[in-house]
Specification:
This protein is α+β, with helices and mostly antiparallel strands. It has one domain. About 50% of the residues lie in helices and about 10% in strands. Strands 2-1-3-4 form a 4-stranded mixed sheet. The longest helix is centred in the C-terminal third of the chain and has 26 residues. The protein is globular and about 50 Å long.
Length: about 140
């Protein structure tokens, strides 16, 4: 996004299929480089609900603020519009609950509980700061 001529979108099909389709169409129509960053859970995440619920996992990641959705549309600059569009709502405060639903995060609480607490708090702060930054960019 720092180059002002690159289309960038952050998407998650399970969270917002319409936003994904919009991003794909915008990226294809953009006259220049396009980058779409998609959240796609894998078996190594250790989703407690199983890989059959990967789409739900994407939705939970977006809702808690772990994976905010946005689109950066360079053409909007020429039209006098804000190029940054935040497609996510304010996080629902369930980041830790989301993280505990994946073995890759939950295992830390069993092995190093004190360290896990520090890291979970840092993740909550980081996600809140990132959303605030994106919100300011969108406004």
């Amino acid at each position: 996004m720092a180059y002002d001529n690159v289309y960038v979108a952050k998407v998650a099909m399970g969270a917002n299929p319409a936003q994904l389709v919009t991003a794909l169409k915008e990226a294809e129509a953009h006259k220049g480089p396009s980058l779409i960053i998609a959240y796609a859970p894998c078996i190594n995440h250790g989703i407690s609900n199983g890989m059959g619920k990967a789409q739900l996992e994407e939705k939970l990641a977006v809702e808690c603020g772990y994976w905010p959705l946005f689109r950066y549309i360079p053409e909007n600059i020429d039209e006098g519009k804000n190029p940054f569009i935040l497609d996510s709502r304010e996080p629902n405060g369930k980041l830790r609950e989301f993280m505990m639903g994946e073995v890759r995060f939950a295992a830390l609480t069993r092995t190093f509980p004190e360290r896990a607490e520090v890291l979970f708090k840092a993740a909550e702060e980081q996600c809140a700061k990132r959303y605030a930054t994106y919100k300011a960019m969108a406004d």
